[in-house]
């Protein structure tokens, strides 16, 4: 399950909240997964993998 599925937000929202131009994320980054929640990216994480972990979708 992905980040967007877990938090029931779109990948586009996540990208917008984090000024991302692509789905690429990097270990050590802290990203906004809602207007108030954050997730610290770990080595090996992918946007789709994080979205899956939190039962949210990647669009």
Automatic annotation (TrEMBL):
InterPro entries to which the protein is assigned, alphabetical: LysM (IPR018392), LysM_dom_sf (IPR036779)
Family matches, as SUPFAM superfamilies: LysM domain
Pfam families named in the record: LysM (PF01476)
PROSITE patterns noted in UniProt: LYSM (PS51782)
Residue intervals of the LysM domain: 1-33, 37-59
Protein name: LysM peptidoglycan-binding domain-containing protein
Organism: Peribacillus frigoritolerans
């Amino acid at each position: 399950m992905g980040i967007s599925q877990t938090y029931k937000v779109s990948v586009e929202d996540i990208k917008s909240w984090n000024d991302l131009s692509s789905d690429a994320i990097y270990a050590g980054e802290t990203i906004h997964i809602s207007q108030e929640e954050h997730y610290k990216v770990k080595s090996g994480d992918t946007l789709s993998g994080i979205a899956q972990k939190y039962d949210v979708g990647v669009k």
